[in-house]
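Marked as duplicate of an earlier ticket. Keeping the data here for the record.
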Amino acid sequence: MEKNFKRTLITTALPYANGPVHIGHLAGVYVPADIYARYLRLCGKDVVMIGGSDEHGVPITIKAKNEGVTPQDIVDRYHNIIKDSFKGLGISFDIYSRTTSAMHKETASEFFRHLYDKGEFVEKTSMQLYDEKANQFLADRYVTGECPHCHNERAYGDQCEACGTSLNATDLINPKSAITGNTPVLKETKHWYLPLDKWESHLSKWILEDHKEWKTNVYGQCKSWIDMGLQPRAVSRDLDWGVPVPVEGADGKVLYVWFDAPIGYISNTKELLPDTWETYWKDPETRIINFIGKDNIVFHCIVFPAMLSAYGDNFQLPDNVPANEFLNLEGDKISTSRNWAVWLHEYLVDFPGKQDVLRYVLTANAPETKDNDFTWRDFQARNNNELVAILGNFVNRAIVLTHKYFDGKVPAAGELQEVDTAAFAELNEIKASLSANLDTFHFREALKDAMNIARLGNKYLQETEPWKLAKTDMARVETILNVALQICANIAVAFEPFLPFMSEKLVKMLGMGTIKWEMLGSSSILADGAQIGAAELLFEKIEDDAIQAQIDRLEKTKEDNKIKSWTPAPQQADVDFDTFMKLDIRVGTVLECQKVPKADKLLQFLIDDGMEKRTIVSGIAKYYAPEDLIGKQVCFVSNFAPRKLKGVLSQGMILSAENADGSLVVCGPTGPVAPGAQVK
């Protein structure tokens, strides 16, 4: 670390409580934050990690309305799911609270009122869409209409999901209220704005001059915003769900969720440390680190620092904001609305005891510098080929050999040979790289360093071959297994930030007690003669069927999404009544049905049309077994000109409807009718 701080405050982006947490959240924010917090604790540092659920805003009110429950019901449900999921994965928050807490309401209200009394806000009136039937202003997501860019008729007031363009609700063509379906009207409303332009020069120096060490994606996005010129930003909304604006004349207005949410870091710290919270926010010797995803960079690097600067009272700004890019899933962007995600609470059920496997894969694939991709096949390969075959294999061999030759007691090391000293020299080189990467938030590279210790151990055993020497030189075997066990102990220390469940298990197996980062690199962590436990598998292979089940689930999601997003084919050009009446549509009973030879798509029907029997060929073989249609009644066009299909003369056309997935369903009457009955 470049600066010598007395303590570190780690904050993590508040997950939005209208759904569970998925692997994109974990890879972008929570696993990196937990790695860093665990590392600092091992180093003996004073560190506090703050988390909590973001529980206000329009999407929660929409979800509540759709489900017929209250917004509080929604946030209670998902806050508990999220909190329990984090605990299950070993995310070591010192507190995980929420923005509906009494402490948060009090803190956020006081924060706004303090800025208001200082005159830090600008009051503005503007014209916004208003639903006269619902008697309320409409948030952007409560307005739908035609996109002015691509003319998608189902665009939202904040964004068109068809073309991706950001919108204002007033941009929409033919806007409609999502609440009542009525056409909204423009009505004047008043809001409070934080003049970011007032803090532009201050933020420019703080970021562009004082923090050139920040990640390029963070620095670049901030520079782009500052170069364009900062504009006042609203801090209130017309809504009935949230922290009420604490001034007179603000009925029906709440704090905008992006003003409200980051104050949650402060309120959660106050809840955890009611007597000393200010030390972590106002003491210059506290280092504040904000772990976020790239979609939150502007709010944490520009908006929230402007809020803190406007408040004054020695509030410290973050020393670093190591934001990550996005994690994709099987080559496609993770989407909560499309259910295209791997949800943490489901993973913990589907893969019990494999928390560290997910932590490992998400860190190995961390989107630190660019978007990255998670695939289930890669997940399986990394578990089987790295965690099992490299890390688990080495530890298991070292402990099994110790029990075989020395009754599970750490043998004393004799005189070290060159191969032994070389192993410890390499171990200390790895430690230096590992510590440097952790200090600078390069967790993916740090994980490679940690795994290199296991690779070192495997290489050492292969070079020394103690199982062969056991026949001739047990003194040498004692030294080799002492070195191997010391490397195992180093693994327990090095991997604790990354794989805490494995590390805890290994610590117990080796009888190590409390571990500290300063142990790493040591050749004498384990005392001579100390008793170690029996070997237990640290990881186990994941079989193909478990992975295929996850892939099948995603495939089903993909098919479900096709159906949800399906829209009927465009209507054909109008025809006059006389043209329509030329079609003679009748009901027939299927007497026989068989596949047409050398034609995968065709079925040959023999139909009783009430007057005679006729043959009709239809392209529905992919969707029906012939025997399932015998005896059924179907609708067909009886005056369709005969034509040959694969050598069979077809005397009509059976009517079918096409589903969203392209499958065909034969049309027929809902009740029995006489063959030959006309459809009118």
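See parent ticket for discussion. The radius of gyration is 33 Å.
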